[in-house]
Design goal:
single chain; 279 residues; alpha/beta; seven-stranded mixed sheet; three-stranded antiparallel sheet; 10 helices
Length: 279
């Protein structure tokens, strides 16, 4: 029933948009609605740290509302990072954790996010929180080697996830349903340091929904220098889980723990955990 109601509502909205664009007054009203949505923000507070995030749609409102509860293990991991550390947030999405690391721990953050739909909100969130001197946006995907390929996306929604670069599988290793894709350049962690002159990270947070093991494969010399890694791994995706473990152990790291919030004990993400690796 809920799906039917959502479908009906979507068709009504689509019809209304078409109707509004037929007149000058309608186009003006439509522009005001879009502008109003993009200017909506949501304040968040966690352990005394106040942040403001852009919330133009329901997904980003949800991300703000669940900031403290969706990935408590990620926040705890960030809380343990020494102040002033260099952090790579690989798969930064709209930058919630990039902003938190920069503001809570005074980290120098490099936020890797290739989605053209997420980049605008990522930039807005960095600006809203006065972090333009601390958080650098890197609008390119990481992979195992320098290559031109496509970013394959399951959604074009602001704040959407489940995209992958250069592969046709998703977070679970299964074929992904692509709704949009565009060509771009991917590079390895080593390329990011050698070609883009990005500082070697002290800590790496990685959540790219499927090719984590490929990124680790292309980052061996970098991983040998990091102090800690938080990486999202789907245990049911054997190639990802097994190979990621091999590359991290080869870099001299060991897994201290893996966790996810209780809300993910069932459903699509029940086999997905944030693994915390330390030296």
């Amino acid at each position: 029933m809920k799906k039917i109601l959502k479908s009906i509502l979507k068709h009504l909205i689509d019809w209304l948009v078409v109707f509004m664009r037929k007149t000058r007054a309608g186009r003006y009203a439509y522009a005001q609605i879009i502008g109003s949505a993009m200017s909506r923000t949501q304040a968040v507070s966690h352990l005394g740290v106040s942040l403001t995030f852009s919330a133009p749609n329901a997904l980003n409102q949800y991300r703000a509302d669940t900031f403290s509860s969706k990935e408590p293990e990620t926040l705890e991991w960030i809380d343990g990072i020494p102040k002033g550390s260099v952090v790579w947030d690989i798969g930064a999405n709209v930058g919630l954790y990039s902003c938190y690391a920069a503001k809570q721990r005074a980290c120098r953050v490099f936020a890797f996010e290739p989605s053209v739909f997420n980049l605008e909100l990522l930039a807005r969130n960095v600006f809203l929180n006065g972090l333009t001197e601390q958080v650098t946006l890197v609008p390119l995907p990481l992979t195992d080697e320098l290559a031109i390929s496509t970013l394959n996306m399951t959604t074009t929604e602001w704040g959407g996830a489940l995209s992958t670069f250069g592969q046709d599988y998703g977070h679970d290793g299964q074929a992904m349903l692509q709704v949009f894709r565009f060509p771009t350049i991917g590079l390895s962690m080593l390329d990011a340091v050698q070609l883009l002159k990005i500082p070697v990270p002290d800590y790496v947070k990685m959540d790219v929904d499927g090719i984590e093991h490929l990124i680790l494969k292309g980052g061996a010399p970098i991983l040998e220098q990091v102090k800690g890694v938080l990486i999202e791994i789907n245990d049911s995706f054997a190639a990802q889980a097994d190979n990621a473990g091999v590359y991290l152990r080869q870099a001299g790291l060991f897994m201290r723990e893996k966790r996810h919030a209780e809300v993910f004990d069932t459903g699509m993400a029940q086999h997905t955990f944030n693994q915390i690796w330390v030296r």
